[in-house]
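A common beginner's mistake is to predict each chain separately and then try to dock the pieces by hand. The better habit, illustrated here, is to supply every component at once so that their relative placement is modeled jointly.
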Amino acid sequence: MPPVKLLIIDDEEDYASALVERLNLRKFDAAAVYSSKDAPAAIESHRPDVILLDLFMPGMDAKDMIMTLKDAVPDVEIIIVSGHADPAQDVIKSAFDYIIKPIEIKDLIEKVNKALAKKKGAA
Amino acid sequence: MTQFSPDDHLAFIGKILSLYTHEQKNHLAIINESAGLLGDMIEFSETLKSLPETGQILDIIKSIDAQIKRSSEMAKALNSFGHRMDTALCLLSVNDCVKEVLALLHRALAQKRITIEGDYAADMAAITGSPSTLQLLVFKAVTRVAEENAHINIKTFNTDDSAIISITPGIPVDFMEDSDYFKPMRAVTINGREINIIIPLK
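With all components supplied together, the output reads:
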């Protein structure tokens, strides 16, 4: 079975690159981009199953970004990963799930697996 | 016309606190993932094709160190911000008050790609006043510019009877006209493009 593909969109490069390595050690196929403008090309080349999206990035409106991502890859599941403890409810509802930084990697993987189960159920 | 009240002041403090804690959580997240990656290198060492190189490990440690420094700088700004409110009136440095608010607003400004250039007079007179009211004024003036990609110039200087904070581009200052809340400080708009916050020296 091919590895599950994850794309991390987060402007904190050290955070995203370390998380990519940690997820890949756990047999995922993870990649990262550090700005919202680089996301479309990464989606095109990486074709992620699940996207881990930072909520607040320079020049990005989170709700618009989620809509853009879903337009580009309709069956992708999006998990918001943010330091914001109380984001707007409409933003949370537009994504599959929400997790607050700093994260426990086992909690993140659990949410990713739930997102995958939903994706498979919908297929 | 907007009248100001203590609720506006609390909203300002709430905004500063939420920005600060959000940023701290980002720093903690980087430390968490970096430390986790070091742990993984040991835990997964038997399955790794090659052992991590010393340089890679040092880079991860440097990343942790950098986040601790970022966190410490922000904590220092919030600490002095809080201490300034210990008393309603005190002898204050205008330059320090302005720089402190901008440091705490860093994340919010970066999100809108707003850049700030400061030109702070070295000989600014210390004034007696309410630091948090002055910082609320600076906060309002800067955040109401609010256009994405804006470049804001902030300059401080003295006149014979006042300390001035000049902010370009400016905004209409109707938000503080007819308001006693900021007295004795006041703001004026110059040529519709610059706001001057004027703090009487006496």
